[in-house]
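User: Run a structure prediction on this.
Assistant: Running it now.
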Amino acid sequence: MDARLPAHLEVSALVRQVSAAGGFAMVLKKGEREAGTILVVIQENGENARVYERMPGLDGTRIWHCAKTQDTENKEEFEYWLDRRGRQDPDLWIVELDIAGGERFIGFNPNPG
């Protein structure tokens, strides 16, 4: 098992990095301070939102995966999905990043290898 950075420290670092790079970052929901799951909503200029969540891989590591993308024709459904996830898990953190190429801040690589 790999050592995990406490959730509140990881979220704080993420918000500071994005802000320092000229983007906007905001905690939408605070979860369990030490071990809460973190969802990261990434968008550019308020558009093209997608949600990333770390999931366990076959090798035991935790890898970022895109869990949800926003349908431009039905933006309310995306907000409903986030709200529902937040209500289902009181330990969940939801962090919103508004910056171009925001995936770089979570180390997500859509084309590994």
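The chain has a mean pLDDT of 91.
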